[in-house]
Write a structure and sequence with these properties.
Helix 7 packs antiparallel against helix 9 and helix 8 crosses helix 9. With about 260 residues, this protein is α+β, with helices and mostly antiparallel strands. The protein is elongated, with a radius of gyration of 21 Å. It contains eleven helices and six strands. The strands form two sheets. The protein has a four-stranded antiparallel beta sheet with strand order 2-3-1-4, with helices on both faces. The chain folds into two domains: about 90 residues, 2-Layer Sandwich (Alpha-Beta Plaits); about 160 residues, no CATH class. A hairpin with an 8-residue loop joins strand 5 and strand 6.
């Protein structure tokens, strides 16, 4: 009878308390593990409340969920939590609007854009190539910074969609340091042609996996800002990569 009480009806939303999470890397691991179950359609994990809300397409026992998390890391635990407060909070997390979801990346772009435009303003003239170089320096430095705050967490998310990282996990770590190197190279104006060629190639490879995930409508975490923020994969990520490809392409053309 106890087993029957912990089953959820098909097509229902189930709420859980998650134990053992200590960082955003844990959030990514828990989310990935639960979404791998055939009975689970999608999961939203909230580190602040140590909670998760799952959309289920078939009944699943708490023992099955527990076993799945333990296979990832023995420190994780899960228990059913039907409280109305958790339900309300979880539904709000799932139904948050576009602006709330992508606020972190919009703020990052906003800060970089305003700062680089301000440099041009105080220099007394707008030079497109110089502005692009400064913008790309800020982009790669800031994005590599967030990835390095939790490299393992970033790798856990990145292997879910990047075409190279899927085959070799080490590429996620290499990619982060390439971003750092590109940021410094743009900042110092080091070998502009080589820097832009590398940026163009790396971002072109990156956008392939992003496009595949968005076209296939895979509900996975975007790793562009590392594992610090739980950003879903969407056209925003495509625009971000495409912008870097366009800028580096223009710079290559202007330098040749």
């Amino acid at each position: 009878m106890e087993e029957l009480n912990i089953l959820n009806n098909t097509g229902t939303r189930a709420n859980y308390t998650i134990g053992g999470m200590s960082c955003m890397s844990c959030v990514a691991k828990v989310k990935s593990a639960l979404e791998a179950l055939p009975e689970v359609t999608s999961v939203d994990v909230d580190k602040a409340t140590d909670s998760a809300v799952a959309l289920l397409n078939a009944p699943v026992s708490i023992q099955s969920l527990e076993s799945t998390l333990k296979s990832v890391d023995a420190k994780y635990s899960i228990s059913e939590n039907p409280s109305s407060a958790l339900v309300a909070g979880s539904e709000k997390a799932l139904e948050r609007n576009w602006l709330e979801t992508y606020r972190p990346i919009l703020l990052v772009f906003g800060y970089i854009l305003i700062t680089t435009l301000a440099i041009q303003w105080f220099n007394g003239a707008f030079e497109p190539r110089i502005w692009m170089r400064h913008f790309m320096a800020g982009f790669f430095l800031v994005f590599s910074f967030f990835k390095m705050m939790d490299l393992r967490g970033f790798a856990d998310s990145y292997v879910g969609y990047d075409i190279i990282a899927k085959k070799w996990r080490g590429w996620a770590f290499v990619y982060t340091f390439i971003e750092l190197g590109l940021g410094l190279s743009y900042l110092l104006n080091f070998n502009p042609l080589l820097t832009n060629i590398i940026a163009f190639g790396v971002m072109t490879i990156s956008i392939i996996g992003v496009l595949q995930s968005v076209v296939q409508k895979n509900e996975i975490q975007c790793a562009c800002l590392g594992a610090i923020f739980n950003l879903p994969m969407s056209t925003v990520t495509i625009i971000e990569d495409a912008l870097m490809i366009a800028m580096s392409g223009y710079m290559i053309y202007s330098l040749m």
